[in-house]
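Sat 14:20. Reprocessing the chain from the morning session after the first attempt stalled halfway. Input below, unchanged.
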Amino acid sequence: MTFPYDQARLQALFSEVDSRIDDLGKVATAASQVQRRSRGLSEQDLAAIERFAKSPGAPKELKDLQRRVDAGEMSWADVAAGRAVNDPGVQQALAVGVPDLQRAYRAIEEGQDIDDIIESGNPTPQPPPRPRRDDDEEDDGPSHFRKDAW
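Finished this time. Tokens:
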């Protein structure tokens, strides 16, 4: 019985796969040696968080957390490192920012420039859809088509 494929072509395919696996190994090795750009929040970042938490515009939950930091219960470094993540007060303070993060995520998905989103600090949300009334002048036709409608 003979093999139905051209042996030379089959060997070329095997060689190509082997070559790509070798390349993948090289890329994986190189990637493992790359250092991440961020090493966490700097002292300046933590100071900026604290300034904002003490500012009049800070949410109540963040101000409450700042009072606990001032009292020595924890530090902003503890919060940033995740050591206080299970604390209900920390969770409440962080949850305040979730809607802004969701808006930023939607803005990114819509293709808005990331630098513009960061600079504005408040991505422009899309206006909510206007509720339709029965007497709206625009008529898009029936919302469901049935055989008897034809």
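The first helix runs from residue 7 to 32.
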